[in-house]
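Reviewers asked in the last cycle whether our approach scales beyond single polypeptides. To address this, we selected a multi-component target totalling 1013 residues and predicted its structure end to end. The input consisted of the following lines:
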Amino acid sequence: MKRPRGWRRIPFPFLADRVRRELDDEIQGHLEACTKALVARGMTPEAARAEALRRFGDVKGVRRRLMRDARVGGIGRAGLEQMGSVGGGFRRSLRTLARTPLVTLTTIVILAIGIGATTGFYALIDQVILRSMPFADPERVMQIEVKAGPDGSPSTILSPGLVLRWNDLVDGAEAVAAIGRETAALGTDNVPIRVRGFSTTASFFDVTGLQPVLGRRYFPEDDRPGAPRTVLLGHDLWAGVFDGDHGVLGTQITLDGLGHTVIGVMPAAAETLEGEADIWLPMGLDPGQRDNVGSLYLNGWVKLEPGAQVPSVIREMNAVVAAADVRTNAGELYEVLLTPVEEVLTRPYRAVMYLLFGATALVLLVGCGNVAVLLLARGAARRRELAVRMALGAGRRRLIGDLFGESLILGVVSGAIGLVVAGAVVRGVQGAVPFAVPRLHDAGIDLPIVAFGLLLSVLTAVVFGLLPAVRATTMDVQSTVARGTGGPTDGTGGRDRTRFTFLTLQSAFTLVLLVLAGLVGRTAAKLSDVAPGYQHEGVLTALVALPPERYPDVGAVVEQYGRLQSALLSVPGVEGAAIGSRVPLLGSTAGFGMLADGVEAPPVNTRLLIVGPSFFSTLGISLLAGREFTEADNRDSEKSVVINRAMALALGFDQNSALGRQVYASGGGPFVDEDGTPTRYTIVGVVSDVRDQGPRQLSRPELFFPMTQAPRDPWNWLGRQMVLAVRTDDDPTQLIVPIARTVQSIDAQLPLYDVAPLTERLRGALAQERLAALVMASLGMFALLLAGAGILGTVAYRVRRRIPEIGVRLALGATTGSVVRMIVRDGVTPVVLGTLIGIPTAVMLGHSLGSILYGVAPWDPLAVAVGVTTLVTGAWLAALIPGRMAARVDPVEALRSD
Amino acid sequence: MSSEKTNLLRGTLELLILRALSGDPRHGYQIVEWLHESSEGELDLVEGTLYPALHRMERKGWIESSWGTSAGKRRAKYYRLTPDGAAQLESQLARWQKHARAVQRTLEAPVAAGS
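The resulting structure, written as structure tokens, was:
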């Protein structure tokens, strides 16, 4: 292959043109000058021209040769002096940096760590929070919440009736979708696989704009009750279990024993919504559900019409609520809240992520203080060099340009190393976070992050490098050259003020970090101390679901679970065994509006659970009144339920007066006798409230059915899935294998999944706070170290400069103690000033942590006190080292050297 | 064309250019004129060969150039010595003089007859 000659050497055609033009000008000028000279000597212009050409020789050859030389020389100095000077400046900058390796290295290390940590957390935030959701027009997609709690607290769980009505009646809504979680056993050749996903109304695709990557979405005709069963596969399931086979379209898969036709595959992006999404099923809501406005068990999303205003849509939706007359336990109409789905999906992590990102940025700022002081010191040391160069005629602009170049090099190098650090930070956090944060594990250092990191580092280095540069070049040349460096009178007062400012700010930032770390740490400690209301130690939990294909009848389900419980009790080492649709932190609940006989009150929005005998005693949930379920509660005995304390209070009873009362489902629903009247259930026990979702919240009103008496519908709502909980005095993980074997011995086809000790789940619920506390504490300590180093360096520098003065003081009878005190006071003063700035700042920022903090006020005196004490002690220790150095000054020596 | 003259010049052209530029900046033709005049017409060169030498020296950092206006009101590229170039001139000059003296001495030395 023939390559055009020289293409490699001049990458920019316009540069080549310029070189060529200048060469031609030069040669032409020569020939003209020569011709002119010859004419002056009497030649005719034609003859002169010919002679000039003869003398010059081979014009074309020379021209070719010059062009070639220009290429060999890179871009060709000839026409590009400015570039040459940039290159020269770069080399000069490198030489200068290499002359002070310690300062350069320290600067790079501080900046690289600061920038790396900041960039790493930015990468995480970017992935988890900032990158937009895979929706069309995400700003118009809102999550619907209603203020349904007894205290008006918002609930994301809605009734099918409201969703259907909103979809039809609200003009400002393009579409309203209902979304529910699903789990199912996917039939395979061997043991079924547990899959999770969503069931949605067909409008889900209109709301999100998501489109299958393969096949088709489901439409309203697929979403009718009784329509042929269809399913969309999640991308990961399709790629993993079905080998990404396009032939999967149109085939049948079995979910919980029922055949479903695969009509499409969802995009991988849909997976990022909320963790696992293996299957997408049409919800098949019965239009008759329009009247079911009271039982809350769905999530709802709405897509606003383009240009529709949120408040007006909310007004319309509230009007629908009012027409349906849906009220809270306190008798208030539900109020609708709309929040962008993007925000909702990131809400649980938003505060902590921003906290940690902000904290790393603060550490970076503290580090920048050190860098600035370092460069300031170097600027001072170079005053003479700079002054000489200025005296020799180097422009101030050029000198600043050089210093700028140095900063640029520092920035780029630290940025590059920082990106490596950022990668480590990202991997570290990913490894340390045991809970599933959507999209967290997709985070990495990609192009936008690289750009962010480099921009940040260059900006940092230039700002903090140029500041001292400007300072260093604003000087009186003559006096500096004449005097050299040193001497307390060489105008360093200004620099001392700069240093003082930097130390003050560094201290303030460090204090903020320490106080915030204290607040988060206290939160984590408080949360660990919260009694969850149940016994988690020694309890192993797992999920199991009986597929309807082999257990079509609820009676068979109940029987099999009963058999399972007895089998578990006979496993050696098992002290107690319980079966229930949910234990704290695991399993699922249904929801329905419940009423009590003889009480004039609106229905209580109640969580429904199905539990077996000995459930409460096995989990250590205390019985406040009455009894728990036993084997005696069977199909034929009196219909009994247990409620929690919150439920008793919501019904208007206390824990004792609730006993013996009868409750029934509002509107009956599936809870009716054969004659259609709502079934009456007698309250036989009241249990205490537990912290079901983690240590922060107490559970809402709950009602427990005994397994043997729960009607068919709640079983189906709960997917016939139960939690197995076994208790042992020993390490519960030792029970995993025997329990799995026991389950297999009952039914070899049953998958046991989500197996973990309850203690571990509880720890997982605290993981975010613990991790935040750990990271904050480390960042606080790192900042303290940086600030301490800054104080030490600055005070030591001042001691060196004040040696003669110290000598005089000592000679005049000052004690070494007083000298040490003077020096230390010098170092600690800016720190004290910094704390005065830092305390209000920390309290202010603490307020914005509201959702993170638990049991601690943002102005928590303990956190503030510990922060201040730590900082001031650290500063005092740092200043003490140069202080003792000052005490060792020999007055005679010091005075002589002046 | 006298190839003797150019051959003679090739090794010393850089030195002569350095010398030519040791005063005021000059453009290419001025250098040619200076060479011609100061050698009283003895040193002559194919003028085109001057430019590769000038550009080479510029890349070495011995001379630097800038565009100015010549006496004839024409744009011309002026070359002048850099400090590096001045040092170069000094050392090359010393070497040349040493060499020239040695050649001179050798040429003037008596030659023994026979072997």
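Chain B touches chain A through 25 residues (CB under 8 Å). We regard this as preliminary and will revisit it once experimental data from Aim 1 are available.
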